[in-house]
Amino acid sequence: MRAGFPSPADDHAEPGLDLNALIENRASTFCAWAEGDSMQDLGILDGDLMVIDRSLTARHDDVVVADLNGSFTVKRLVQKSNGSFLMPANPDYPPIPIKPDDEVRIWGVVIRVVHDLRASGRRKRSAAATPALRQKK
């Protein structure tokens, strides 16, 4: 949808969007609220709703929900010749190397993020509706 003046092409706009079409694997997809600012440079802001697919196999550069030694974190999975890392998207946070003795389980892949743009709606969410996933520092 254009944010400027109307266009004659608007007469041919799509009639609607089925949000279910954005979720391929409905049975294995869930939502969680992001907490923290470690992923802000990738557009995942504090209070955003993340859509996470547990059926996907994480690949290099995917944003993942990882259980690292008993703590959940949301980071970009980076696989290099010298090892794998959980990378924040904020220069204020250091990369997290995955060491051989770490217990790591990739819990899901973040496939979508929903921002609330209304000032009155930001950070007003029901904690009971979905869990919060802290972006581990």
UniProtKB/TrEMBL annotation:
InterPro entries linked to this entry: LexA-like (IPR039418), LexA/Signal_pep-like_sf (IPR036286), LexA_repressor (IPR050077), Peptidase_S24_LexA (IPR006197), Peptidase_S24_S26A/B/C (IPR015927)
Name recorded for this polypeptide: Family S24 peptidase
Keyword Transcription regulation among record annotations: no
Domain of life of the native organism: Bacteria
GO BP term (any one): SOS response
Keyword DNA damage in annotation: yes
GO function terms (MF aspect): DNA binding; hydrolase activity
Keyword terms: Autocatalytic cleavage, DNA damage, DNA repair, Hydrolase, SOS response
Gene: umuD
Similarity comment text for this entry: Belongs to the peptidase S24 family.
NCBIfam families the UniProt entry points to: PRK10276.1
